């Protein structure tokens, strides 16, 4: 998503050229390209698919069929991790307690199906500013409270610096998640202000904002996380630029922090 202006073949080519060993894929461009074709493209290039994004939106109609399809796509792509953006308030779930109850119930329905296929469900808590429309799970403690009802090999969490940096309880939750083997994905983005209208596309390039990214990296290392580290930037200014240049810049920023 950081360089969504690149086609999948362009993304794969540039990752190989720059020595980036893996890529987190999003379902929309994968479906547009063709799931089987995308799997072959990445596999033949020697890249790993670190995660597939996204499943979730459990408070909306049709969630079960859509998420079972997402799990099947993850299997085809060869990734063991499906990132979940759980969904916000809807007429069926008009408040936070009912939304969170629905989310937990839905994950309970999906977890055995995912686990039988070797796919882990990774609950991503989003910043509270998204609680009404995108994700009623706002803290890592809340995400763990759901995940811990299920086996760790079936359900875990995403640690995304953009969404969690403000929460002084998050470091202890990271330690707790790491001890239980529930950190299924680690994502980096910086926090810059002012936020844009709509707030969705305000993720800053690494090292340009308020988040102490080296401290978060050290925190995850201390918690025992050894998996891939993704950079996930939603940023209109970055998307308007040459994608190859943005990818090069992002790699340089990643190595710097």
Report what the structure shows.
- The protein is α/β, with parallel strands linked by helices and 257 residues long.
- It contains eleven helices and nine strands.
- The protein has helices spanning 8-18, 27-33, 35-45, 63-77, 96-116, 140-147, 161-164, 170-179, 213-222, 236-239, 243-256; strands spanning 22-26, 48-56, 81-85, 120-123, 155-160, 183-188, 190-191, 203-204, 229-231.
- The strands form two sheets. Strands 1-2-3-4-5-6-9 form a seven-stranded parallel sheet.
- Helix 1 (8-18) packs parallel to helix 3 (35-45), helix 1 (8-18) crosses helix 11 (243-256) and helix 4 runs parallel beside helix 5.
- The radius of gyration is 17 Å and the shape is globular.
